[in-house]
Description:
The structure is a single chain. The protein is mostly helical and 218 residues long. Helix 5 (125-139) packs antiparallel against helix 6 and helix 8 (180-191) packs antiparallel against helix 9. It is 78% helix and 0% strand. The protein has 3 domains: 1-67; 69-141; 144-218. The chain has helices spanning 3-67, 72-81, 87-103, 107-119, 125-139, 145-155, 163-176, 180-191, 198-210. It starts with a helix and ends in an 8-residue tail after the last helix.
Amino acid sequence: MSETDSFIEEVTEEVRRDRLFALMRKYGWIGILLVVLIVGGAAYSEWQKAHARASAEAFGDAVMAAMAEDDPAARIAALNAVSADSGSRKAVLEMLAASEAVTNDDREGALAKLNAVIADTTVPDSLRQLAELKSVILAGDAMAPDERGKLLDALAAPGAPFRPLAMEQQALSLIGAGDSDGAVALLRQILEEPDVTAGLRRRTTQLIVALGADPDTA
């Protein structure tokens, strides 16, 4: 390589280096900003997870402390004092308080708690449906048959989260109305549902047998 060629190559390399440095001075802040955003975003995400975990633990501890009270009325008062920052947590507190009200022979108070969950649009649909099913069971004969039937039909619709339990209540209504054959048919249908719990399967089988039918006969 001649001295001229060597000189031209050195000059070209210097020009390239100068251009690179100029580009870094002009646009380098973008890369730095991206790094800051990525690191900051990761840190914020971890903080959110830690905050949510700490909040859930504090809520759980408060609920456990409330449930540790000796008297049902004291447990209800303690549950009412627990702070809930979401519809799901409020629903859990209301339904626990409703259960305690039933223990304390306060059916009206329990129904009021359940109706509060049903009416709260911030509560997830699945929890509202659970509260609705509980209210139907708790109301019993005090609820008009037509209203009870309409509510159970909606709760027992295909795809509903508590369909098998609602079907069990429908079967009990049929038994109360004297329609044993219809109840048996519905109870057998419950046994064919894919998400039937062991407890519900046992209760359903016992009801079929009590009605004088065979659970395995279609």
